[in-house]
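Support case: user asked for a sample of complex input and structure output to validate their parser. Sending the pair below.
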Amino acid sequence: MAQDVVIAGVGTTDFSKNSKRSEHQLAVEAIVACLDDAGIGASEIDGMITFTMDETSEVDIRRELGCESLHHFSRVPFGGGGGCATVGHAAMAIRAGVAHSVVVYRALNTASRVRFGSGQLTPPPESGDQRWFTNFGLATPAARVGITARRYLETYGLDDDAYAPFALTARAYAVTNPAAYYYNRPLSRDEYLSSPWISRPLRRFDCCQESDGAVALLVTTAERARDLRKKSAKILASAQNAGLEQIGLAQYWCEDILKLPEVSGLKEQLRKQCGMAPRDADAAMLYDHFTPLVALQLEQLGFCQDGEATEFAARGHLGVDGSMPMNTHGGHLGEAYLHGMTHIGEALRQLRGEAVNQVSDVSAVFVASAASTPGSALMLGQL
Amino acid sequence: MSINDDSDLFWAGLNEGRLLFQTCRACGAHRFPFRMSCSRCGSFEKDLTESKGCGFVYSYTVVERPLLPGFDEPYTVVLVEVDEGVRYLGLYAGDVDPSQLIGSRVRARLNPDQRVPVSFAPEGN
């Protein structure tokens, strides 16, 4: 029987549009907050995992924190798709015995430094040959998603405003979350409908924010966690998956672009590991970079049938009293965009019972970093 | 998909006014974007085949912001499934009502000197 591994702490900086400090500083601040949350000293940290896209240095951070040793450091590729995998890789390192307590983190100044939505970002090498998109007029992530989003509406005979419930639900959660950029700033349906087009059928509020900030999570053994003052989230399963025909943010060359094989594959791996389906969880944190891709995730992960996701959201299933509360912190749309790491932190808060929009009787939370890149997922439960 | 010699062959073809795809020499599968080997049978042997550029619109998006350098008005990008079975992106050069665009027949026009070198116009135009 493999050793039980947990997420024992979460720390964040403030989320803003201009942090006025370096990503290095943001990372350190988030890690210090995370260690404080967990009640563990920096001297216990012997591993660090972040994203290949992250521009901080593990050794620089170690120096700031004064960690006595650093036995394991590695990075996960494919941008936001790597979110849950940072935790998964940490769990593997701990189970393999090469590390005991691993900090995973992501620091990003994408509002004030390099705006991901500008079309000016140089993607990492693993994103592949971008000329297949950029040379044909699709320079931004939103434009690429626009093609998929239109095909979805056409296939299921839906109106152009079908994605609204995802944006409105996220912003409603953010209204009561003091950490959210859109705290106390509700979004009305009229405001949503009058927001400018980015790439039709995507409106501005179908697209996630660009944010400055950092998130850190502490992964350690269940044995260590039992002595800590706060509750931990047990990692019941962690999965990573890539689709065969996947290039960058688009699956245009799959037979059916509305199937996301990299996402449905995550579901199968979780089932093998812990016997649970995503919808067996009490809450879900899905990767909400663009509302149409939330619809596809809900379908490909088995929360609802194909073509029913927008109706599922419109009927309130994703609200705090719904059948599957989703992104209760407000997600990328309402709280902040940090490559899905805030979603994992929110899962921990829900399991602890300390979320601002707390769901009652939470025994398991599903998290997906299914960013339409090769992705990852976690099933978390009570220790 | 990594940048490699195979992908360069597509752009070279375009400069000669040819819209190319790859045909697997072992199993006959048509494929685009370009790559080294066949995901169906694994063969590295392939031929370059020229598409007639005729097909139907599979999906589209109207890019409003940010626009590509050199564009001052929103433009429509279409994903077209050509009769040879592969899909190409390109600018839409036509005035069909957007609600009728998906499924409509189009034909490719190649403009190697333009910022977006492939466009699709309604068939018959």
